[in-house]
Please model this.
Amino acid sequence: MVKYKYYASLIFIAFIWGSTFPIIKETLLFVDPLSFLFLRFLIASIIILPLIIRRINRYLAIYGSIVGITLFFGYLTQTVGLEYTTPSMSGLITGLYVILTPILSIFFLKRKMVKTEIILATTAFLGVALMSLSSSSGELIGNILTLFCAISYALQIVLTEKYLKDGDALQFTFYQLLMVAILSLVFHPQVIFSFTKMEIPYVMFSVLFNAVLGSALAIFVMSVAIKNTNSYISALILISEPLFAVLISTLVFRYPINVQTIVGGSLILVSMAIAIRIENKK
Model:
């Protein structure tokens, strides 16, 4: 019964992450991707720093930073991808990490993958292919980048289970956030001049929303949930993220949805739903 609080918290985080897709899409009209990531994760790191400053752990610092590298490439490819595709499609393709997580668990956690999981993973990939092939050249680039994002996110989830174990989830989260901010600065040193963009009200709102809720809180909650359950079930619960992304993008920002998107997205969502049902019967 205790684990239900972790499940509920993950659903809330999925809603937050789903809502960030259209928000970030609009933000990129004013600021470049790496500048946005630097501002977002620098603020998120500063928020957590006072809470862990007196209990630094070398093991968590090393492995939290390693996992932070996968997180950086996940956010980088997702954010850049959003410049070339719609928030709805970005949310759906990113959601593919739910299927990729058990696949990567075979190699990093030595878990066995049953035939049904392989079939579901293949069906989900067909859904992504359908959406990508039906897009224009620009959207195809965005879809491919977002697919790399899904792989990075799946790797981040699996490595969190592998390295966090009995450690402090808050410290582990801090080093991940800090690594994303550092790498954003390394890849784009001119980012320091982007602080002037904070004068734009929408950019200020977006950066703070994503830093506080979408980064500091969300990644900490996810780390705690993985620590107390496992990477596979946590990823399965976060399945609702692309659903929230599509709903918010359509209802609030009026982004159009075509037939190909619906069919391809349905293949992904049905595959994920079946995977959840199978897991609940174990």
